[in-house]
Each structure stands twice: as structure tokens, then as C-alpha cells.
């Protein structure tokens, strides 16, 4: 049954969402997440999230893995949802992705630490050709038939970062419209780069999002979040900051080959007080310590995250900024051992 009215999220959506973006430590993209899924690893990592007082995780699904193994995908997804619920966490699954290199079997499977990055989904050719949009209908329909009204999900994000430069806003609008046709009660949203990009989807979304991974100062982010609060109050819709990482005073570093070494390191504490002080919903990037997800940051050495696989944290200051003052865990202030080992192997 088509959604003729907007879903009205309850009061918790405006004040109580404390989240992170989640990929398993060694997954470079969403396809690898689902192809290599290990329930014990997911359970362990969700336990770390619970320990850090998080109640939501933003997690990318994989249309391509579903194309290859439809039933296996949904079996795995259901198990992940169950594990999240066990830890008091609600998932916000992301169905499609603008960012990354074009998706091919080779790019999806790539494990080379120098070249393995995120992959867009679906391929650019589908995203840019209205005659091919309907190719994703089976995935959207199957997902909403199973989860469109499942209150274990916080929201369903139809796509991450569609924008005019990449010629895929039409595709994203098609997917949102298709989702609304399928009915359901879980709030619908888009992972917008900027707050005003939500206007691409005027009258179609239940929750607004925006991203600012590397603001030049905490004061600048606070100003942005005040504007977002204004939008939230006027529109009556939750307005979440769904990607944030750290302050970079010398610039965000997108597509810059070299940035100050200090700026390549995780530093959630530089923004956490500002973000949480607003009382608005937010998700930091990322729960697990990993090399940068994007081609625009990987070459300059950026890595990000809070927890290592063994449960130690990269930074105690970051951990306390997220989990609360006085909390403690072992500290490992380096890149993950598995990643350093893979760099050595790549030299050979």
C-alpha cells in the first residue's frame, strides 16, 4: 500500500540518536561486508558500540551481493538486525551508494591496501540512465516487503550522497518514489552531503540528513548544527548529522595528496562535545579503526574510527568523549595490525 502520508517519527528521533557508521574492520566496501560476514565479529563489534553508549548504527547493504545471492543476503541481514537488537541498537541500512569507484567484480573484490576502496552501487551506467532505473526494482521491492514496517530499523536510507555533479539525483528520486509506493512505516531518508540537498527530495523524506566530516573548527560545526536545528523545528522532521570525524583547521583534505600528519589521525574528541551538546541525532565515522573509505582521502593517509578488533581504542580521549568521562579501555594508537601487515605484503 502506497505511503500517502509522511511517517511522523516519535520524540526520540529528535533527541536520543547516538550513532556511528559501521563496516567490519577488514571490509573495504559494502559487498565485502556481506560476502565475508562473520556473525561472531558482528556480535563483538556491536558489543563495543553498546559499551560506548551508542544506540544506532548506519550500515551499508549491497545490491550487488543481493544480485548474486538474494536469499543469503536477506538471511545475513536478518541475523545482523537480530544481533543489533540484542545490544540495544537500531540499524539504519543504506540501500545504494553514490561514492567510490565504479562497481565491477574486480573493484568489489579488491583487497590491495593501496587500491581497495568503496564502490558505487548500482553502477554509474544505471545511476545515470533513466531507462535503466527499473533494474533495481526487485531489490527495493524485496527489501520493503521484508523490512518496510520493521520497527527494529531506525530508518531506511535509500541512497548515500546523490548529487547533481554525478548525475544521479534522478535515480535517487526514483528509488525514494518506488519505496513510498511499496508502503511501510519505517522512516525514509537520504544521506545528503549538504543540508540543502534534502530539497532534491522535497515532500518525499521523513528524516533529513547532512554530512560534515572535517569542519575547520568546532565553532563552524556548531553554527551548521544551529541551522539544522532551525530546519528541524520549522519542518517538524528530525535532522541528523550522519557523518562527522574531526576538526581540520587547514582544510578538509578532499582530493589532496598530502595533508599534515596530525590531520590524518582519528580525533573524535575535537567535535564530540559540540555534536552531543546540541542534543540532535548524529553518527560519527566510524565505529571500527580503518583506512579511509574514499579515494578522495586514502592517498593522503587518512584513517578513522574508535575501536580496534581486539576492543582496544585508538584514543582514550576519543573514547571518553563518546562513552563518557572516566571510562577506560586499553589503547592502541596505531593503524590496525592487519592493515600494516597487508601494506608489507603488498611491497612483495
From TrEMBL:
<keyword id="KW-0119">Carbohydrate metabolism</keyword>
<dbReference type="InterPro" id="IPR001547">
    <property type="entry name" value="Glyco_hydro_5"/>
</dbReference>
<keyword id="KW-0136">Cellulose degradation</keyword>
<dbReference type="GO" id="GO:0004553">
    <property type="term" value="F:hydrolase activity, hydrolyzing O-glycosyl compounds"/>
</dbReference>
<dbReference type="GO" id="GO:0030245">
    <property type="term" value="P:cellulose catabolic process"/>
</dbReference>
<feature type="domain" description="Glycoside hydrolase family 5">
    <location>
        <begin position="48"/>
        <end position="169"/>
    </location>
</feature>
<dbReference type="Pfam" id="PF00150">
    <property type="entry name" value="Cellulase"/>
</dbReference>
<keyword id="KW-0326">Glycosidase</keyword>
<comment type="similarity">
    <text>Belongs to the glycosyl hydrolase 5 (cellulase A) family.</text>
</comment>
<dbReference type="InterPro" id="IPR017853">
    <property type="entry name" value="GH"/>
</dbReference>
<keyword id="KW-0378">Hydrolase</keyword>
<keyword id="KW-0624">Polysaccharide degradation</keyword>
<protein>
    <submittedName>
        <fullName>Cellulase family glycosylhydrolase</fullName>
    </submittedName>
</protein>
<dbReference type="InterPro" id="IPR018087">
    <property type="entry name" value="Glyco_hydro_5_CS"/>
</dbReference>
Amino acid at each position: 500500500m502506497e505511503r500517502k502520508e509522511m511517517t511522523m517519527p516519535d520524540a526520540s528521533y529528535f533527541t536520543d540518536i547516538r550513532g556511528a557508521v559501521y563496516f567490519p574492520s577488514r571490509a573495504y566496501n559494502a559487498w565485502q561486508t556481506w560476502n565475508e560476514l562473520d556473525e561472531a565479529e558482528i556480535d563483538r563489534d556491536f558489543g563495543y558500540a553498546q559499551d560506548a553508549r551508542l544506540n544506532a548504527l548506519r550500515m551499508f547493504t549491497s545490491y550487488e551481493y543481493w544480485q548474486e545471492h538474494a536469499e543469503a543476503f536477506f538471511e545475513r541481514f536478518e541475523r545482523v538486525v537480530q544481533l543489533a537488537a540484542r545490544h540495544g541498537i537500531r540499524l539504519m541500512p543504506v540501500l545504494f551508494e553514490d561514492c567510490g569507484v565504479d562497481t565491477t567484480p574486480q573493484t568489489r573484490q579488491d583487497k590491495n591496501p593501496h587500491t581497495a576502496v568503496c564502490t558505487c552501487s548500482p553502477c554509474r551506467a544505471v545511476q545515470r540512465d533513466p531507462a535503466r532505473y527499473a533494474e533495481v526494482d526487485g531489490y527495493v521491492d524485496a527489501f520493503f516487503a521484508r523490512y518496510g514496517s520493521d520497527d527494529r530499523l531506525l530508518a531506511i536510507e535509500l541512497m548515500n550522497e546523490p548529487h547533481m555533479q554525478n548525475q544521479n539525483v534522478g535515480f535517487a528520486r526514483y528509488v525514494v518514489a518506488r519505496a513510498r509506493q511499496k508502503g511501510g512505516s519505517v522512516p525514509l531518508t537520504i544521506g545528503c552531503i549538504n543540508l540543502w540537498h534534502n530539497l532534491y527530495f522535497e515532500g518525499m523524506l521523513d528524516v533529513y540528513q547532512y554530512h560534515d566530516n572535517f569542519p575547520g573548527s568546532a565553532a563552524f560545526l556548531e553554527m551548521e548544527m544551529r541551522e539544522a536545528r532551525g530546519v528541524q523545528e520549522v519542518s517538524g522532521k528530525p535532522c541528523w548529522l550522519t557523518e562527522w570525524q574531526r576538526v581540520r583547521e587547514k582544510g578538509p583534505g578532499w582530493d589532496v595528496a598530502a595533508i599534515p600528519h596530525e590531520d590524518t589521525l582519528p580525533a573524535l574528541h575535537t567535535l564530540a562535545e559540540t555534536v552531543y551538546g546540541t542534543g540532535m541525532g548524529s553518527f560519527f565515522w566510524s565505529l571500527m579503526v580503518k583506512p579511509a573509505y574514499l579515494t578522495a582521502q586514502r592517498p593522503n593517509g587518512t584513517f578513522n574510527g574508535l575501536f580496534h578488533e581486539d576492543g582496544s581504542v585508538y584514543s582514550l580521549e576519543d573514547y571518553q568523549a563518546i562513552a563518557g568521562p572516566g571510562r577506560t579501555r586499553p589503547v592502541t594508537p596505531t593503524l590496525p595490525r592487519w592493515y600494516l601487515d597487508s601494506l608489507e605484503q603488498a611491497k612483495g
